[in-house]
Amino acid sequence: MGTSLVKFSRDTARDVKQVARGWRWGRRPQVPRSAEPYVIPKETSVFPTKWARTPAAIAVREVLQKGALNSVLRWEVNPQVSGLDSLLKVNGPALIVANHSSHLDTPLVLCTLPDAMRRKTAVAAAADYFFDTWWRATASAIVFNTFPIERRGGKLSSTPGDLLADGWNVVVFPEGTRSPDGWMERFRMGAAYLAVEHGVPVIPVGIKGSFAAMPRGRGWPIPGRPTVAVRYGDPLRPAEGDSARDFAPKISAAVSALLDEESTTWWEARRRVAAGTSPSQSGPDAARWRRVWESTAPIKPAGTKRRAWK
Rounded to the nearest 10 degrees, what angle do helices 134-144 and 105-112 cross at? Predict the structure, then answer.
């Protein structure tokens, strides 16, 4: 009897594991990426997030961000923050634009902003990733004040413009997704369009070391409290007559200059910007392992001269 019961328990556990592996826990499509052009897109419903900006939700988020999120972040990584004086040059809503290589990037930006600015900041998040299930959508909206944007359909959500008009700052990652190897990808024009259309400044942010601390595929930062650098730059404003196509390269160049500055010194980076010789932040033309190896070099302590990629 005992042997039969043990065998039954093992068989049941195996069956449960097999069902769990095949169960759809979210609404993400199961169609291979290569076959997506041949599949008729389904109508998607927009997850409402206006409730996340009510006074009650703001109060809850303040406790979560200043307490749990900030404590966990600084326990797991060592953020080095610079350029916060640049934020004093902004009076009113702004777009906060950063390179993107890790899920750490959003908490790094939110937890390093001044409190008054952080409380009035929302984050654009991919609808097909963060809003594919109700529990993920609810959690990200309440903790990070996210709102969904469609990154594949070619449409620009009206929510960012509405938030800017209401006085909210908006965090945007123009690459559209996390870098697969830590190097900066091509910037899309959504952020530039918003800046030109709504007449708001862009605050460039260079984030270095977040890929090494928590690359794609990891659900938690690596042990050892790795150093991550967050550098804010002077606000950019579209020039008279600038279109989104004209302004987008300026945003990308500003973020690249901040990453170059983080790798070397402020003076050397400024000289290269003036001479038009800033190194590309798209990484070396090499095998993926070499690109990953280069992008995961440890961040040196503040004030130390760092090597720039040539």
Answer: 30
Strand ranges in 135-271 using DSSP code E only, listed in sequence order: 146-149, 169-172, 202-208, 227-232
The enclosing domain of 192 has a CATH number of 3.40.1130
- Tens digit of pLDDT at every position of the chain (310 positions): 556 655 556 667 677 677 666 665 555 566 666 666 666 655 556 678 899 999 999 999 999 999 999 999 999 999 999 999 999 999 989 999 999 999 999 999 999 999 999 999 999 988 877 887 888 889 999 999 999 887 655 455 668 889 999 999 999 999 888 888 888 888 988 899 999 999 999 999 999 999 999 988 888 999 999 999 999 999 999 988 889 899 999 999 999 999 988 887 877 888 888 877 777 788 778 888 788 888 887 776 554 444 333 3
Is residue 309, in this structure, part of any structural domain at all? no
Query: What is the residue range of 64's domain?
Result: 50-296
DSSP element (H, E) containing 198: helix 190-198
In a domain, 305, yes or no: no
Q: Is residue 170 part of a domain?
A: yes
